[in-house]
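Worked example 3 (structure in, sequence out).
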């Protein structure tokens, strides 16, 4: 994220103080549909594994996350 200079920060403060903060852009239909697919996909993928397989995957992920070598 690029750094803001003093004038940009001051402008944002004035907008916020006067309630003129612009709304973030709305999500496109493509973004909404993509998020829906991601929500379904994770659950469907996890359902294919046994409890033992999920445990092994979690152990491997934890080891990778905390292995500092």
């Amino acid at each position: 994220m690029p750094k803001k200079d003093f004038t940009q920060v001051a402008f944002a403060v004035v907008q916020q103080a006067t309630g003129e903060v612009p709304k973030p852009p709305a999500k496109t239909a493509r973004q909404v549909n993509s998020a829906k697919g991601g929500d379904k996909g994770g659950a469907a993928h996890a359902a294919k594994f046994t409890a033992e397989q999920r445990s092994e995957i979690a152990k491997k992920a934890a080891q990778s996350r905390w292995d500092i070598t």
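Notes: The longest helix spans residues 29-47. The chain has a mean pLDDT of 85.
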